[in-house]
Design a protein that fits this description.
This protein has helices at about 45-60, 130-140, and strands spanning about 1-10, 15, 20-25, 30-35, 35-40, 60-75, 85-100, 115-120. It is globular. It has 2 helices and 8 strands, in the order βββββαβββα.
């Protein structure tokens, strides 16, 4: 079985009771909301990754105001067309503050829309689990840098 590792950096950006999210295709013809961020390029510092990804996906420049934590998940992917893959994702979650730019969708990228969402309305959104993990880290700010519920998910 092949083994892959992906390291990515994401930002939780909250302002006036709203969180900044990006929209991504869900693979089933629909969309789901994600934390803005993405994969590190070889040799890139994760701090630079999160700032680059936020600009690409939302149009905003941010200052990183803190490291909220790290999420690590391992999954086995299977497909009829390829051999099974043992995939490990390591996701650094930062807090960010908008310092410039204008909200706009990403062009020719992995997302197609960026928008602010009321924190109280997140339950109604179709979103990836990483949004909940990022928000949990932002709210709880655990000294370990690990979300309390992280070990309970599959």
């Amino acid at each position: 079985m092949s083994k892959t590792l992906r390291v990515a950096a994401y930002a939780v950006v909250v302002r006036n009771g709203q969180i900044l999210l990006a929209r991504s295709p869900d693979g089933e013809g629909g969309h789901e909301w994600v934390l803005p961020g993405g994969g590190m390029e070889h040799g890139e510092d994760p701090y630079d990754t999160v700032r680059r990804e936020l600009l690409e996906e939302t149009g905003y420049r941010i200052d990183v105001t803190g490291l909220l934590g790290v999420d690590s998940v391992r999954r086995t992917f299977t497909s009829r067309l390829r051999p099974p893959e043992d995939h490990h994702s390591v996701r650094l979650v930062y807090e960010g503050m908008v310092t410039g730019g204008e909200l706009r969708p990403e062009v020719n990228g992995s997302t197609d829309l960026a928008a602010w969402h009321d924190l109280g309305a997140l339950e109604k959104l179709k979103k990836v689990r990483m949004v909940d993990i990022g928000l949990e880290l932002w709210l709880e700010r655990p000294v370990t840098g690990r979300a309390a519920k992280a070990g309970t998910r599959s």
